[in-house]
Amino acid sequence: xxxxxxxxxxxxxxxxxxxxxxxxxxxxxxxxxxxxxxxxxxxxxxxxxxxxxxxxxxxxxxxxxxxxxxxxxxxxxxxxxxxxxxxxxxxxxxxxxxxxxxxxxxxxxxxxxxxxxxxxxxxxxxxxxxxxxxxxxxxxxxxxxxxxxxxxxxxxxxxxxxxxxxxxxxxxxxxxxxxxxxxxxxxxxxxxxxxxxxxxxxxxxxxxxxxxxxxxxxxxxxxxxxxxxxxxxxxxxxxxxxxxxxxxxxxxxxxxxxxxxxxxxxxxxxxxxxxxxxxxxxxxxxxxxxxxxxxxxxxxxxxxxxxxxxxxxxxxxxxxxxxxxxxxxxxxxxxxxxxxxxxxxxxxxxxxxxxxxxxxxxxxxxxxxxxxxxxxxxxxxxxxxxxxxxxxxxxxxxxxxxxxxxxxxxxxxxxxxxxxxxxxxxxxxxxxxxxxxxxxxxxxxxxxxxxxxxxxx
Length: 457
Ligand SMILES: *[C@@H]1O[C@H](CO)[C@@H](O)[C@H](O)[C@H]1NC(C)=O
Ligand SMILES: *[C@@H]1O[C@H](CO)[C@@H](O)[C@H](O)[C@H]1NC(C)=O
Ligand SMILES: *[C@@H]1O[C@H](CO)[C@@H](O)[C@H](O)[C@H]1NC(C)=O
Ligand SMILES: *[C@@H]1O[C@H](CO)[C@@H](O)[C@H](O)[C@H]1NC(C)=O
Ligand SMILES: *[C@@H]1O[C@H](CO)[C@@H](O)[C@H](O)[C@H]1NC(C)=O
Hints:
By secondary structure, the chain is an alpha/beta fold. It is 23% helix and 25% strand. The protein has two domains: 5-331, Rossmann fold (3-Layer(aba) Sandwich), CATH 3.40.50; 342-449, Sandwich (Lipoxygenase-1), CATH 2.60.60. The protein is built from eight helices and 18 strands. A ten-stranded mixed sheet has the order 2-1-4-3-5-6-7-8-10-9, sandwiched between helices. The chain has a four-stranded antiparallel sheet with strand order 14-11-16-17, with no helix packed on it. Strand 3 (87-91), helix 3 and strand 4 (118-123) form a beta-alpha-beta unit. It is elongated and about 80 Å long. The N and C termini lie far apart (58 Å). One 2-acetamido-2-deoxy-beta-D-glucopyranose is lined by residues 67, 72, 76, 78-79.
């Protein structure tokens, strides 16, 4: 397999970043507790991608101290594995530098706080490190080894429906192949930014797809680089369009971490944050992100009004049957935990213009401001756009409009017939918040204060 220069560049960069991240990781180590392996380049070269798969077990009885888990643990009295509880299986992805993933314990603990389950962590750092193309060759073998273990669990009375795989990046496709081996009878697979390189054009047999489990959900955050851009589940949440995440620098010069893996890792951080339960992240079905941003999709009527949510609720909260397949869902987020944004639909109606123009709309809540620019054409008088505001519609104190475009010729006043704000998807249908009939002058910003009280729900 040949290496494109860009891939090599990204790998070197990833390796460099990983070394920085590992450097600051807390190094404390409790010898009593099991941990994931790590490997070094020297070791790797000696053993030539020797595939070793180990398992760690975390339960509510040992949330802070993982136990090593093997098939023997099923008959071992001192193992905390409880056969009558559901099982979550976490599978990490590609490790550029052979380091162990640092977030495993936090994800396991977040899961355990919500549900009384067995959490099994698949440790395949040995097979997942360094050359990405060799790692991709390993992933099916890892899946086969996991399926041997799942077979043992099944023999002891675990039900396949009660197994939920959570795969990160390449780990999502490992989970998908385990699902293929069990002919889709596994309960659930969640893919957190499933890997894109070498998988986008792969056959469904080779990648995660809806036939791999009874329910497959995926979160996409970096589909233009490390993530996959096509839907792979029953429902696929595309966060901020699925490519670039807020707060991750778009400029490659701003921060190396931001450029390389911030977008990709956002899926995991958002998932952990929703488990913490501070707010609900709801996806809105739409054909494309462009349509979504234009305000053409503002409800979940196709789901009988209940929008699918990110997190552990069964079938993402979908009540309709049959569950759809490859349903794209869109939502906007904020740049930091708990990531929930309020979707505000902005509707503007102007009197016909003689020249094209531009207005900048700002929504203000104390020191928070959300801006949106609208390009106005002579042929249209109605405009719609979707904004992500950090707080609810009823907490917006002020709206400002600025007549911005047209630096090189005199732009006259823009007559606004109405500017309206509404929040979606709304629980109850509220009247939009509107201001009617005013002019916006060039160099003279217009603003209007709202006097609102937030109702109690
Ligand atoms: C990896 O970890 C497992 C169990 O945690 C241990 O048995 C094995 O020896 C480790 N491998 C290496 C090379 O350290
Ligand atoms: C794992 O990493 C630590 C420090 O990062 C190092 O001391 C240790 O030798 C590594 N273990 C293996 C098996 O490479
Ligand atoms: C049972 O599990 C404990 C703790 O994990 C371990 O120390 C012990 O060696 C295991 N015994 C057998 C027979 O596997
Ligand atoms: C295993 O889980 C079941 C169901 O929650 C519970 O009733 C039982 O006490 C647990 N067993 C052990 C050994 O904790
Ligand atoms: C989730 O909650 C735990 C404990 O309250 C906290 O340590 C962790 O940082 C939170 N994680 C996220 C992603 O919000």
